[in-house]
Amino acid sequence: MKSTLTFALFFCFNLLIFAQQPNDCVNAVTVCGNSSFSLDVNGVGTQELNGSNTCSGQENNSIWLVVNIATDGTLAFTLTPGSTSINEDYDFFVFGPNVTCGNIGQAIRCSTTNPSNANQGNNLTGMNSTDSDPDEGPGADGDSFVSDINVLAGESYFIVIDRPIGNSPFSIDWTGTATFPEGPTNPLLSNPSSTDLPNVDICDDSAPFNDTLREFNFTQLTQDIINGESDVVVSYHTSESDANINADALGDVFNNTASSQSIFVRIENTTTDCFIINKFNINVTALTNFNTPTDYQICDDDLDGDDQNGLSTFDFSTKTQEIIDGITGVNYDISYYLSQTDAEAFSAPLPLNYTNTAPTPTEIFVRIEDLDFGCIGFTSFNIDVLPKPIANDISLLQCDEDGIPEGFTTFNITEAYDAITNSAQNSVIECYLSQVDAENQTNAIDGNSFENFFNPQIVYARVTNTASGCINYSQISLEVSTTSSNNANIELCDTDGTEDGFMQFDINDINNDVLAGTPSGLDITYYETYNDALVETNPLNATFTNTIAYNQTIYARVENANACYGISEISLTVFKLPNIEITDETIYCENLAPETTTLNGGLIDDIPNNYSYLWSTGETSMEIEVSAAGTYTVRVSNSNGCFKDRTITVLPSSIATITNIEVTDATQNNAIAVSVDGQGDYEYALDSIDGPYQDSSTFNNVQAGLHTIYVRDKNNCGINEQLVSVIGFPKFFTPNNDTTNDFWRVSGISTQFQSNTVIYIFDRYGKLLAELDPLSPGWDGKFNGEDLPNSDYWFKVKLEDGRTLRGHFTLKR
Asked: Do 241 and 11 contact (CB within 8 A), yes or no?
């Protein structure tokens, strides 16, 4: 029978490290009538061609084939490389008939022609009936084809395919007349040309159930393939290469090493050595088609008589529904356990209504078995009994302080919240008029300000733990008391340095006044408003600064064991201080003693008779008279006993005493410098008592002549004066009887000043012309009764103070 062998699927042997390969004679692949191989010319085993052929060939990348002849005829083939490149070079060698490995002898056919070197039009090679050469090559020798072989039934031949150049696979077309034995068939395949068996899809049903590894027994599959034939053997392999060369068979019992794994089945006819290779995939999956359950938390309850012991009953049927929620068409058996070991062993399942016996959280293990397919999966979740919040029943006693003793008032229930929960954290409290409302959270009341309409009255607290969501309930008994405490007041003067009507009060100072006549053991808390006191919000500190200027009422809540005893009004008053000038200064002129000066209390915008006075002198009148300098104080008090102290500084002053006058005269810039003594603050004027006055005691550019110096005390203690002489000489005179400058005389001389002065007049030649009386009108410009001419004349003045002054002047007519 003629057949075609096509190498359509390929292995890269350099990646398959451990498997034996058919590039050695002992691993030669048997060619059968319906054989199909997944091989490639890649790699070389033992070099077995050296010296065995006339084509000078050896193994580079080789495959060994063994051909068994079923019927007489010719053995011929055409080898076609997968690549059409002329550089793709395949060689082949044929040994036989009936030789054995290790004793193959010389090749009876071979070709090592290089198609590129031989200038061929293609890269085909093989044996045919038209070529007469039994061998050709190497290199450019030949056309890559040699003559076919006449073969007989029962003979066997080795064909070695080698690829010295290139990397493509190849296919063989068997063109001779001889036939090969038929390969075996697989009765399980409906299509004989198929090589794929149905995949084995199976769940992991052995512990550990989630590793997708399990045992497979191929015994029945083997029997089904053999189908009673005595010359068929079946083996299983993890690679196609192993199946081709029959290496590393798995055995009928096999444990997979991966969740998805290919198994190659070698079905061999032991008579012909022909075989076929089938394949199937095994896919092992863990049972994952379920929802992972969430942790299961419930609040502690009192079904066992104790809602704080951490024990409660869990309904696992809710978890069952959660596990399969949204998954249709499944048939699962779901059970619950306290350990993974119990779950895997299917031992000691828990009841669906499970009551824990140990503190939680506790991990619960779930076994999920697919009753249709036998798959088993596992998951887990935690159960936790959350503590129920503490909710104590309490009583509140409130005061009836609205002036109408009807037993109705306003309660601040929130001030009892700590007592309800024992100050527990994460607790939220809501108040309701009934238990039903509390459970349904409807018609909540304002716990900060609730007006009772029964006395006593019960309201209901719903306590929620915000961390766990657990809820508890309690009752609050509200009762109105009709007892009372005392009103009181605190009065302060506005003495904090800022007269604005605000002061800091020590409100604990009136505790005794508020509690006077009440039982012992009461507590007081102060509040700014009546409502705050009633509902106990915003308590005041022991020191409180009023928030309303001058007059404000605050409230004291008196309690007996946290129950309202009474609410008192506390009047806070800030009195104004006297409005006075705190300091003042005045002057006392000591030179006017025993005259006095008047001091007063310095009141502003009020009647002095409304106040009382206490002076540092001991006097208590509105004004006092003093006759001495010094510091005087007076305390001015109003009718509320508030006072201010005024300080008056009486400064001494007096009229000036002129101690010296220094005159600089007979110069171009005559000056007068005055020296004084006294306690006053002085100013100075020249020649006029009315001034102008100056602070400087020196006068410059003073004209010659007699002048009066005035020294005035700025504090009005008086003016002192003194006459002073400034000596000076005129530069010219005009004796023409016009009454202006008709005489030359020395200025500044009088009966009081320099009266004994001697004055001489000379002409330019030194001739004495006149000796003048210093008190006379002066020289008239005559000598011996005759007018002297216009000219410069000289003078010599011997002053009474001993000075001698000389100079000249001009006579003009």
From this structure: yes
DSSP conformation class of 779? B
Closest among 497, 498, 459 to 479, alpha carbons compared: 459
Question: d(Cα 636, Cα 12) in Å, to the nearest integer?
Answer: 120
Range list of H helices, 384-452: 417-421, 435-440
* DSSP category for residue 487: -
Nearest to 74 by CA among 94, 103, 92: 94
CA gap 418, 436 in Å, rounded: 23
Reference 514, options 505, 522, 506, 504; nearest CA is 522
pLDDT per position as a tens digit, 642-677? 999 999 999 999 999 999 999 999 898 999 999 999
Question: What's the fold here for domain 488-575?
Answer: Immunoglobulin-like (2.60.40)
pLDDT digit string (tens) for 677-687? 999 999 999 99
Would you say 66 and 156 are in contact if contact means Cβ atoms under 8 Å apart?
Answer: yes
> Residue 677 CB: number of other CB atoms within 10 A?
12
Given a cut of 50, is residue 15 above it in pLDDT? Answer: no
CATH superfamily of the domain spanning 657-726: Immunoglobulins (2.60.40.10)
User: Which of the following CATH numbers is that of domain 732-811: 3.40.1390, 3.50.70, 2.60.40, 1.10.10?
Assistant: 2.60.40
What are the structure tokens assigned to 27, written together?
A: 């691993």
How far is it, in rounded angstroms, from Cα 668 to Cα 657? 30
CA distance 333 to 775: 156
**Burial class of residue 572 in the structure, from the number of CB atoms within 10 Å of its CB (0-12 exposed, 13-18 middle, 19+ buried):** buried
Element (H, E) at 615: strand 612-615
Burial code (b: 16+ CB inside 10 Å, e: under 16) for 736-763 equals eeeeeeeebbbbbbeeebbeebebebbe
Higher pLDDT residue, 555 or 42?
A: 555
Structure tokens at 21: 């390969």
214: its two tokens: 């399990």
Contact 694, 684 (CB under 8 A): yes
CA dihedral sign of residues 100, 103, 109, 115: positive
Amino acid at 69: I
C-alpha 506: how far from its chain's center?
43
- What token pair was written down for 750? 């009088």
**Encoded tokens for 564:** 């309202």
Residue 704 contacts residue 728 (beta carbons within 8 Å): yes
Decide whether 296-386 matches 732-811 in CATH topology.
Answer: yes
Q: Say if strands 135-139 and 109-113 run parallel, antiparallel, or are unpaired.
A: parallel
Extract the tokens encoding 356.
């824990």
Cα 481 from Cα 487, distance rounded (Å): 18
For residues 68 and 25, give the distance between their C-alpha atoms in angstroms, rounded to a whole number.
Answer: 15
Distances (CA, A) of 395 to 413, 432, 712: 10, 15, 90
C-alpha 484: how far from its chain's center?
A: 54
Q: Can you say whether residue 781 is alpha, beta or left, with left for phi > 0 and alpha for psi between -120 and 50 degrees?
A: left
Residue 241's pLDDT is: 73
Please state, in angstroms and rounded to a whole number, the distance separating the CA atoms of residues 312 and 18.
Answer: 61
Q: Is the separation of the CB atoms in 143 and 113 below 8 Å?
A: yes
Tokens 């039982």 sit on residue: 519
pLDDT band at 17 (very low <50, low <70, confident <90, very high): very low
Q: Which pair of tokens denotes residue 558?
A: 């008196």
The CATH number assigned to the domain with range 296-386 reads 2.60.40
CA 102 to chain centre: 82
Q: Is 242 left (phi over 0), alpha (psi -120 to 50) or beta?
A: alpha
Q: Hey, where are the domains in the chain?
A: 4-174, 200-281, 296-386, 394-481, 488-575, 583-653, 657-726, 732-811
For residue 156 the two structure tokens come to 């066997």
CA separation for the pair 644, 606 (Å, rounded): 14
Report the CATH architecture of 394-481.
Sandwich (2.60)
